[in-house]
Amino acid sequence: GNSVTQMEGPVTLSEEAFLTINCTYTATGYPSLFWYVQYPGEGLQLLLKATKADDKGSNKGFEATYRKETTSFHLEKGSVQVSDSAVYFCALSGRNRDDKIIFGKGTRLHILP
Amino acid sequence: GAVVSQHPSWVICKSGTSVKIECRSLDFQATTMFWYRQFPKQSLMLMATSNEGSKATYEQGVEKDKFLINHASLTLSTLTVTSAHPEDSSFYICSARDITVNQPQHFGDGTRLSIL
């Protein structure tokens, strides 16, 4: 079945450091890929998405590229801020409207000032 | 942008009571809504898929008589935790998918349920 594996946290970085959170997936067909962010005490917000191979999703300085050859969707940001501290979930979904989202276990990110 | 409203955001109640959580899509129609449960510092666990006008589809291990789901319209789904007990305390999150294919799910802000 479909699954998502992402690097375990917590990840602790200093402000302005470069961030990479690895995510790989297993899926049949051609899923859509997502990164969601969850700030403390809140629900999930869609951070970015990519729907086909080689697509790059980007938002708020974060980027991730849909790599079909390596089945990966790594999240990157060139210079993190304290306000980026949150839990990040990699996820995939099929293309039908009632397809479930499969989440990774989440990676907690702490940014130190 | 698309918004999903979840209410209440926080509820504390005594053991044995039933609690209803509402999930509304505010500016789009959703034939399908999803209910998740999240334990502290863990990922989201899908509980059930709520289908407008039909019975919900529950994931394995989720008690359908314990967690009643109703999807009465294209913009509203409710989750009722019946006869709640302390072990039901958790963070419950709903999501809704726009009728348009290939649109991502939009999540509510969650409901923190504490059973005393």
What share of the residues of chain B does DSSP label as strand, in percent?
Answer: over 45%
Order of helices and strands of chain B: EEEEEEEEEEE
- Could you say which structural class the secondary elements and strand pairing of chain B correspond to? mainly beta
How many helices of chain A does DSSP assign?
0
How many strands in all of chain A?
12
Rg of chain B over CA atoms, rounded to whole Å, is: 13 Å
Shape designation of chain B: globular
Please mark out the parts of chain A with pLDDT under 50 across 5 or more consecutive residues, or reply none: none
Spell the H/E element sequence of chain A.
EEEEEEEEEEEE
Number of strands of chain B: 11
Number of contiguous helices of chain B: 0
Helicity level of chain B, as a percent range? under 10%
Sheet of most strands of chain B: 7 strands, mixed
> How confident overall, as mean pLDDT of chain A?
92
Separation, N- and C-terminal Cα atoms of chain B: 37 Å
Question: Can you describe this structure?
Answer:
The complex is a heterodimer of chains A (about 110) and B (about 120). With about 110 residues, chain A is mostly beta strands. Chain A contains no helices and twelve strands. Chain A has strands at about 5, 10-15, 20, 25, 30-40, 45-50, 55-60, 60-65, 75, 85-95, 100-105, 105-110. In chain A, the strands form three sheets. In chain A, strands 2, 5, 6, 10, 11 and 12 form a six-stranded mixed β-sheet that branches. A four-stranded antiparallel β-sheet of chain A has the order 3-9-8-7, with no helix packed on it. A two-stranded antiparallel sheet of chain A has the order 1-4. In chain A, strand 5 (about 30-40) and strand 6 form a beta hairpin. Chain B has about 120 residues and is an all-beta fold. Helix content of chain B is about 0%, strand content about 55%. The model of chain B has no long low-confidence stretch (mean pLDDT about 90). The interface of A and B includes residues 36, 41, 43 and 104 of A.
